[in-house]
Amino acid sequence: MSRYGDLFQVSDFKTEKHVPLIECQDSIAANTIFEVNVSVGKEVTHPNTTEHHIRWIRVYFLPDGEKAAYELANVEFTSHGESVAGPNMGPAYTHHAASIKIMLKKSGTLYAASFCNIHGLWENSRRIEVK
């Protein structure tokens, strides 16, 4: 029997990026608001078409010594060029990147997950030290 976590991939294909990139400070002061940027395809652009796109990014925080993670953000990307005129004919596209502001009281790990409508689930993590 496989587990839900077994569905997540962590390495990239050679021609496009899927792993969500977490950009933020490695160390912050407790109770200080700071920015976390999460994106897919920074070095190699991921397609953003009706047929092939990133549908969502979710961000979680697991504090040291705790079992349960806290969901910090759930960002849906809902426009990829769809239109009554046909695929990729629409006037609007949402880009697969998000910026959130958070405050932490203790050290732990940020986790980001993304979903590509063709290639499935992807994950990454980043350690944050709180002083």
CATH class: Mainly Beta
Secondary-structure element order, as H and E? EEEEEEEE
Averaging pLDDT over every residue, what do you get?
Answer: 94
Number of domains: 1
CATH architecture: Sandwich
Q: Give, in spatial order, the strands making up the sheet with the most strands.
A: 2-8-7-4-5
Quaternary class: single chain
CATH topology: Immunoglobulin-like
| Portion in strands | 35-45%
Considering DSSP H and I runs of 4 or more, what fraction of the residues is helical?
under 10%
Secondary structure tally, helices: 0
Uncertain segments? none
Query: How many strand elements?
Result: 8
Largest sheet: 5 strands, mixed
Radius of gyration: 16 Å
What is this entry, summarized?
The chain is an all-beta fold and 131 residues long. The protein has strands at residues 20-23, 27-28, 33-40, 54-63, 70-76, 97-103, 108-116, 120-130.
Describe the structure.
The strands form two sheets. A five-stranded mixed β-sheet has the order 2-8-7-4-5, with no helix packed on it. The protein has strands at 20-23, 27-28, 33-40, 54-63, 70-76, 97-103, 108-116, 120-130. The chain is mostly beta strands. It has a single domain (15-130), classed as Immunoglobulin-like (Sandwich).
Keywords:
Immunoglobulin-like; 44% strand; 131 residues
Summarize the SSE layout with pairings.
Elements: E1 20-23, E2 27-28, E3 33-40, E4 54-63, E5 70-76, E6 97-103, E7 108-116, E8 120-130
Parallel strand pairs: 2-8
Antiparallel strand pairs: 1-3, 3-6, 4-5, 4-7, 7-8
